[in-house]
Structure formats: structure tokens, C-alpha cells
Design a protein that fits this description.
By secondary structure, the chain is α+β, with helices and mostly antiparallel strands. The chain has 3 domains: 3-83, no CATH class; 88-188, DNA polymerase, domain 1 (Orthogonal Bundle); 204-364, Orthogonal Bundle (hpI Integrase, Chain A), CATH 1.10.443.10. It has helices at residues 51-76, 85-88, 92-101, 105-122, 133-145, 158-177, 185-188, 204-212, 218-230, 234-239, 271-275, 295-307, 317-329, 334-341, 346-364; strands at 3-11, 15-27, 34-45, 245-248, 251-257, 264-269. A hairpin with a 2-residue loop joins strand 4 and strand 5 (251-257). The longest helix has 26 residues, at 51-76. It starts with a strand and ends in a 7-residue tail after the last helix.
């Protein structure tokens, strides 16, 4: 087993520099080469004369001994990260910026929004060496009271706060894996609790009405109704290609990888949903050619909903909510709905069960007698 000893070496000015001696040598994490010495950048005086000089020597030797004891434990655990100053001095904000650049779609927008608040809080830079649990908790409190980028009169919504802080935790987790952090800060830092939001959905009557109302962007109507009949997210509908649409006997199914969770799914679809796809094309051709996520698309969606006489604030994702809510209302069990939505955990689907329970309670209150 490697032993760590505190040693000293004469330097200029009648001083001695303190260093740690590792024997047998240990591998440097950055180069892989064996090394025996770690200079602590601490020094003591050869012949201290004044009480101040003697106190300096005493405190410095105590500090060096504490470092030695800590290193002995780290070496015994096979942790040599303390030798790599390059990563400790790297900029965490730039690391976060690089992670954000790898994201796409709406996830990219969330990462860059989180980056905006991280830059404001840190002033634009922060060494990994200065990144600790206290900083994370301070940033957590900052987000809770931070003004919204849309209005200085309002603070960030709770769900935005949750989302941005989760991006920080994701970056911490990745940094630990990449060797920038010696401890898993992500595991130590408490998340912000998600607020329960009211999920908008369409009734079967409203959905039926939309099916008969013309939309100024036909591909959008086609995709939205397909989402309501299958529960697919916009991102998965947009990237769906014909090779992922399979037939077995008289039944059709989708074989695809979820963009959000990366999970491989096999999703049976109804004949009506299959009918919305139109004429089959080459295997690599997208089923919903021309479907794009943009402000322009959302304008067409809102106009289509208003034309149907629906006053609810409906986004494309509400068609997925509609699928889940209607399935549960019509008697499909929670486990099956969860699998059809591609949820990894049943608790994610339980929010729809609450919606259905609320509907049942409201229905029960509609029949009243004068007694």
C-alpha cells in the first residue's frame, strides 16, 4: 500500500518548501505517468525568531499534516484526482455552455435559459475548484427569487425554477462522470419541488369538433389528431419515418425510439390512426413531411382551436394529454396507459388519474334532489 509522508526541501530565502512523498509512486490521472511528489505550495522558515514567525511555522505544518492525512485516505480509496489541477481550474460556466450547445429543440431552449441565469449569478465564470454544495444551494435560492426574463415585475414560475435547477444538477452529474468533480455534488444537492400544474385536455366532443373543422395548416391537423389517437409527442411524430410503421396481419404498430427518453417502443395504433398517415412512401421518408415546431405553427394551432369554438389554452402537447385522459375515462387501466405513453415510471401517469377522479367527483355533484 502506498504511504504518504510529509517532507521538506530547502529553497531561497532561508525557507523550506513542503511536499508529499508517495511511495510506491501513484499514477497521475491526466498523464498516466507514475509520480512520487506533490508540492503543497507551502513553506516554513529555517530559523524562526519572532513569535509571528514561529506561529507561521506551527500553523503551516498543521495544515500540511491535515492535507497529508486526507491524501492518505484518498490514495487508499484509489482516488488520485487531487493531482489534476487542470480540471479543477477549468471553468464550470463554459462547461455548462458546452453541454447546452449539444442539446436540440425545446430542451436546448431550456438549457440556454438556465445558462442565462447561471451567467448572471456567477458573473460569467466559476472554477470547478470553487464549486461546492454551498454554491449550489445559493444558486437554488437565487432562482427561487429571480425575476422572470419576460417581466421584471414577476419572479420565475416554480416549474421554470425547477427546470433550470435540474439543468445545473444534470451538469454536476456529468462533470462528476468526466472527472471535473471529486464528489458527486448532484447527489448531495436537494432538488426544487415540482408544482402541480393543471393539464389542459380536450373532451371527446371537442376533439370530434376539431376533426370536422378545417385547419389552415393541414399537416398540423393531421399530426394533432394522430397524437390524440396515439399519445405520441410532437418530437416523435415529427421524426417518424415509414420504416417505423409496421403491419402484422390486419394490425398496425409503430416501432421507434423515443426522442426524449431514448427508450425503444412498440406502439399498436388503431386503424383510424393509421388512416391519418396517408399513402405509404419510401422507408426513409418522413411520414409527416413539412411538420415543423415554430411560433408560426402555434399561430395556426390557436386559430384552428378558436375556429372550433374552444376557449381552452391548447398547445400541441395537450393532444397527448387528451389521449391519456380519454383512455382512463373510457376504462383503460393505468398500467396500460403508462406503457402506451412510454413512461418509465407509473407515477408519471398518475397525474392523469387525478384528472379523471376530479371529473368523476364533478359528475357526482351534478345530480341533486330537493329534499
Amino acid at each position: 500500500m502506498t504511504k504518504v509522508k510529509l517532507r521538506c526541501k530547502p529553497i531561497s530565502g532561508n525557507r523550506q518548501t513542503l511536499y508529499l512523498d508517495y511511495y510506491p509512486p501513484i499514477p497521475h490521472p491526466a498523464t498516466g505517468k507514475l509520480t512520487r511528489r506533490e508540492f503543497l505550495k507551502l513553506y516554513v522558515l529555517d530559523k524562526p525568531k519572532t513569535p509571528i514567525e514561529k506561529q507561521h511555522n506551527k500553523e503551516t505544518k498543521t495544515l500540511a499534516e491535515n492535507i497529508r492525512a486526507k491524501r492518505q485516505i484518498e490514495v487508499q480509496n484509489g482516488n488520485y484526482g487531487f493531482l489534476s489541477n487542470g480540471k479543477r481550474n477549468a471553468d464550470f460556466v463554459q462547461y455548462f455552455r458546452d453541454l447546452a450547445a449539444k442539446r436540440t429543440g425545446s430542451n436546448s431552449d431550456n438549457w440556454y435559459s438556465a445558462l442565462n441565469y447561471l451567467e448572471k449569478f456567477t458573473g460569467g465564470s466559476l472554477r470547478f475548484a470553487d464549486l461546492n454544495e454551498h454554491f449550489c444551494n445559493e444558486f437554488r435560492e437565487y432562482l427561487i427569487t429571480a425575476p422572470s426574463s419576460r417581466s421584471n415585475k414577476k419572479t420565475l414560475s416554480q416549474n421554470s425554477t425547477v427546470s433550470y435547477f435540474n439543468k445545473l444538477k444534470a451538469a454536476l452529474k456529468q462533470a462528476f462522470k468526466d472527472g471535473y468533480l471529486q464528489t458527486d455534488l448532484n447527489a448531495k444537492v436537494q432538488s426544487i419541488k415540482q408544482a402541480e400544474t393543471e393539464r389542459q385536455f380536450l373532451t371527446i366532443e371537442e376533439l370530434q369538433c376539431l376533426a370536422h373543422i378545417e385547419c389552415s395548416l393541414p399537416i398540423l391537423k393531421q399530426a394533432a389528431l394522430f397524437s390524440a389517437l396515439t399519445g405520441l409527442r410532437f418530437s416523435d411524430i415529427q421524426k417518424l419515418v415509414w420504416s417505423e410503421v409496421r403491419q402484422s396481419g390486419n394490425h398496425h404498430s409503430l416501432h421507434f425510439r423515443q426522442k426524449k427518453t431514448k427508450g425503444v417502443e412498440v406502439l399498436p395504433i388503431s386503424e383510424q390512426a393509421y388512416g391519418l398517415l396517408g399513402e405509404r412512401k419510401e422507408p426513409t421518408v418522413r411520414v409527416f413531411e413539412g411538420l415543423k415546431y415554430s411560433a408560426y405553427t402555434n399561430i395556426h394551432l390557436k386559430q384552428w382551436v378558436l375556429k372550433a369554438g374552444i376557449s381552452k389554452d391548447i398547445s400541441f402537447h395537450c393532444f397527448r394529454h387528451t389521449f391519456a385522459t380519454l383512455q382512463l375515462s373510457l376504462g383503460t387501466d393505468l398500467y396500460t396507459v403508462s406503457k402506451m405513453l412510454g413512461h418509465r415510471e407509473l407515477k408519471t401517469t398518475q397525474v392523469y388519474a387525478k384528472i379523471v377522479d376530479k371529473q368523476k367527483q364533478e359528475a357526482a355533484e351534478r345530480i341533486k334532489l330537493i329534499l
